[in-house]
């Protein structure tokens, strides 16, 4: 699950939605943005086709975005039926910042060494302590959270300001 992206993906600038003077956003800037972000918006699809969007923290590790949710929450129910989803992060500013949209498939993570590594990162980045047990995160006071890793298939980067740019990164299916 946490296999590193072997080489940075090639950026493709979308000229119809970019300033003529714009360059593609470098992959390193995208990675920095998702590593720095604390909140993402997760989009999943309900069985009847209606979208479901909710904010949650996520952690970027080795080319995968990891997030967690309770087994009975709508997002977990949706992912059990359809593993394709999107995580979005960025700013609420129109003329500055970088918005990033990560499209891909989410898979449940149950391997204890990876879960322990992720728990350490949650604590370091968000001051959110997790205990790893039974292939999931556990709250110290009880209650489990399933952990998922979103493997990117496509990433869109929207550079806002002067100049505006829309850059697409595609990944090979893993």
Automatic annotation (TrEMBL):
InterPro entries linked to this entry: F420H2_bilvrd_red/Heme_oxyg, Pyridox_Oxase_N, Split_barrel_FMN-bd
Amino acid composition bias (Pro residues), ranges on this chain: 1-12
Domain Pyridoxamine 5'-phosphate oxidase N-terminal, residue spans: 28-155
Listed Gene3D superfamilies: Electron Transport, Fmn-binding Protein, Chain A
Pfam family, one: PNPOx_N
Region (Disordered): 1-24
UniProt keyword terms in alphabetical order: Oxidoreductase
The protein, known as: Pyridoxamine 5'-phosphate oxidase family protein
Organism field: Nocardiopsis coralli
